Amino acid sequence: MSTHISETARIGKNTALGKNVVILEGVTIGSDCLIGHNVVIHAGTRIGEGVRIDDNSVIGKEPLRSPRSIFADKKDYEPAIIGDGCLIGAHVTIYCGAKLGRNNLIADLATVREDVEVGEYNIIGRNVTIENFCKIGSRNKLETNSYITAYSELGDYCFVAPCVATSNDNYMGRDPERFKHFKGVTIKDGGRIGVNATILPGKVIGRNGSVAAGSVVSRDVEEETVVLGNPARVFKKIAEKQKYENNLDKKKG
Asked: DSSP assignment of 121-149, as one string?
């Protein structure tokens, strides 16, 4: 196998390519980027300046569609867009139609599906999955093995601990009625979810709302409130010093 770079691809100054890289038609890559070994960048993908993509990652992949998929077949996707300064780990898959703002860290083995928008300065941890039709704000932390289901929305400064699971189908794959009610979760600015918590379809975590570790959220969480248990119930109000507004780095924002 040898490196393949399409004649229609455009690569900026001081960008280094590893071995066995495949860059397909119409790709643009900015200056001062580092592309690792065995990376595949699909047609039309746009990559900003100062981006690092580690070994064996795939950018701009088209989705597979089963005949049983709930999602309508979409033949023409927008290209993947990777903003300036992003760091993308090894064995990451970012689908076509995904749009990443600047200075995001996408750790090893993570997956960002099609039709996902990601703001800036997020940390998306190892083996995190963000399913399609999600919108992720800025300065969030999604930690190892967390799962963000399709049709979800996160604001800014949210924290999702390791192994958090979210869901969007109250009918668990049965009953045609389910097609009318698909809805992911919503986490408002500063919302936090503890390790191994489960958030049921359509639930809203209010601004600065907090979910304790191992809880099962079956109803909305009010702002500035801590919930605990299975099913999760109100435990207390969060302390003033726990509000995200009181924990901002004045230099970094």
From this structure: S-EE-TT-EE-SS-EE-SS-EE-TT-EE-
Query: What is the tens place of the pLDDT at every residue in 116-147?
Result: 999 999 999 999 999 999 999 999 999 999 99
Which residue ranges does the chain devote to CATH 2.160.10.10?
Answer: 1-63+79-132, 139-172+182-253
Topology adopted by domain 1-63+79-132: UDP N-Acetylglucosamine Acyltransferase; domain 1 (2.160.10)
Could you tell me if residue 73 is left (phi over 0), alpha (psi between -120 and 50 degrees) or otherwise beta? beta
The CATH homologous superfamily for domain 139-172+182-253 is: Hexapeptide repeat proteins (2.160.10.10)
Q: Count the Cβ atoms, other than its own, within 10 Å of residue 25.
A: 11
Quote the CA–CA distance of 234 and 45 in Å, as a whole number: 46
Tokens found for residue 7: 């004649």
**pLDDT averaged over the chain?**
93
Judge whether 134 and 122 are in contact, CB under 8 Å.
no
223 in Cβ contact with 244 (< 8 Å): no
Give 47's contacts (C-beta < 8 A, 6+ positions apart): 27, 28, 29, 30, 33, 41, 53, 59, 82
The backbone torsions φ and ψ at residue 178, rounded to the nearest 5 degrees and listed phi first, read -60, -30
Q: Is the peptide bond before 231 cis (omega within 30 degrees of 0)?
A: yes
Give this prediction's pTM: 0.92
